[in-house]
Amino acid sequence: MKRFVEGEDRKQVTLLPECLDDFVAEDNPVRIIDAFVEELELESMGFDGVTPSTTGRPSYHPAVLLKIYIYGYLNRIQSSRRLERECQRNVELMWLTGRLVPDFKTIADFRRDNGAGIRNVCRRFVVLCRDLKLFSQALVAIDGSKFKASNTRDRNFTTGKIDKRQQQIEESIQRYLSALETADRTQPPELEAKTTRLQEKIKQLRDQMHRLEQIREELKTQPDGQLSLTDPDARSMATSGRGSGMVGYNVQVAVDARHHLIVAHEVTNSGHDRAQLSPMAQAARDAMGRNRLKVIADRGYYSGPQIKACADAGIAAILPKNLTSGATAHGRFDRADFIYIARDDEYLCPAGQRAIYRFTREEHGMQLHRYWSSACPRCDIKSQCTPSDYRRITRWEHESVLEAAQKRLDRMPNAMMVRRRTVEHVFGTFKHWMGYTHFLTRRLTNVSTEMSLHVLAYNLKRVIAILGFSRTMRAMRLVGA
């Protein structure tokens, strides 16, 4: 008696071959991908080749290639070469494409040439989520994370890097010249091979020096003082690790607090987040179709003009201030210890004195008012306040907007916890799917397309988990509505 489950003979011929549809379960997510893409108006979304050419070889319909990419990113298969192989052996992809097997170049070219269309598909899915009422009443968390570009640190240059590298080359040349001089004096004539190698190394180093001078000239045309040779749009960015950094992109996302769906995203090559609060908040508000919105962000987004722009757009920003006070670090009174009296336009200091308005000056396009008290030199607690003659207080003309943001944060003490649990896992998921490697594409536009595919796959997987297969399949009918 056999004690193992036995398979079929590979060479067994069947009279009634199985239908390909029999190999795909009725609740397989690949059926949702097929239904979603079939409902899209690809031509109006900006895809090329929807209407076939009357001449030349027949082309693949954009819907076929879009299905391949959505399936690939949903299953952590982003490489065009790997997708080609999967089309040959993966039953789900055979079902999805009708047994078509595009070559890897066709697959890669589709992603490169239809970036706008792919980004529009991602936006259309967000609209679908809005129609399904999957978003919260109006609370999102915004955050950014650095992703590696297809450009190593050694192929990213600044003036400082060039100076350091040229100094290293000069020192190497001097060492080789000294070794060459010693070899000429002491080496027997029959051992000329070493001399030849030293001369070749010196020539290579001088060629490197010449190339660095060319790069220095190219750097003069770069407004931000950086030049990346492999991916020209990638930039060197500091990361949270001490003394570390990477050449990459800064990916911004706005995530809804209810089901943690991504409502807006953007790829930038700016190494900081200070200019991203208002653009991301307004993009999230528009995507959710709200007139009012609350956004939570970390202190890296704290910027007076950005918070003011949010307030003007009907968006309430909730975020902590930067910890940059030198007075606090030295145990002296902080700015928060001075109470502003709006009626008199004066500040009440911890000693009970009034700091009165003195003058206004402009810095970086901002009108800043200056205050101090004439009683500072005679104050008994001056040592706890300032080492200067006077404790000067600066107030922005729109300081009330920042004070309102601080009050909102005080009323929501768990805001940073809500932010962390809402948005931070999203980046962990992306990097896990990518395999903790770099973007496969180059240039900002193409990288944005690649990230849109990640976002679309993430949101699709979330919706299936939230609604289940049957409700998600029914919801696909809303896409073309």
β content, as a range? Answer: 5-15%
Shape: flat
Q: End-to-end span in angstroms? A: 60 Å
Enumerate the spans where pLDDT stays under 50 for 5 or more consecutive residues. none
Total separate domains: 4
Helix content: 40-55%
Structural class: alpha+beta
What is the number of strand segments? Answer: 13
Q: What is the name of the CATH architecture of the largest domain? A: 2-Layer Sandwich
Say what the CATH topology of the largest domain is: Nucleotidyltransferase, domain 5
For this structure, what is the CATH homologous superfamily of the largest domain?
Ribonuclease H-like superfamily/Ribonuclease H
Report the C-alpha radius of gyration, rounded.
Answer: 31 Å
CATH class of the largest domain: Alpha Beta
- Provide the residue-averaged pLDDT: 90
Largest sheet report = 6 strands, mixed
Please count the helical segments.
15
Topology as a string of helices (H) and strands (E): HHHHHHEEHHEEEEHEHEHEEEEEHHHH
Walkthrough of the structure:
With 481 residues, the chain is α+β, with helices and mostly antiparallel strands. The protein folds into four domains: 20-113, no CATH class; 137-148 and 235-319 and 408-441, Ribonuclease H-like superfamily/Ribonuclease H (Nucleotidyltransferase, domain 5, 2-Layer Sandwich), CATH 3.30.420.10; 159-225; 326-400, no CATH class. Helix content is 44%, strand content 15%. It is built from 15 helices and 13 strands. The protein has helices at 29-38, 62-74, 80-89, 91-97, 104-113, 115-131, 159-186, 192-219, 277-288, 304-312, 326-329, 399-411, 415-434, 444-467, 469-475; strands at residues 139-148, 156-157, 227-228, 235-238, 245-256, 262-268, 293-296, 315-318, 339-341, 346-348, 354-363, 366-372, 393-396. Strands 1, 4, 5, 6, 7 and 8 form a six-stranded mixed sheet that branches. The chain has a five-stranded antiparallel sheet with strand order 9-10-11-12-13, with no helix packed on it. A two-stranded antiparallel ribbon has the order 2-3. A hairpin with a 2-residue loop joins β11 (354-363) and β12 (366-372). The protein is flat and about 105 Å long. The chain starts with 28 loop residues before the first helix and ends in a 6-residue tail after the last helix. GO terms for molecular function: DNA binding; transposase activity. InterPro entries: IS1182_transpos (IPR047629), Transposase_11 (IPR002559), Transposase_InsH_N (IPR008490). This is Transposase, IS4 family. Residues 239-460 form the Transposase IS4-like domain. Residues 220-243 are annotated as: Disordered.
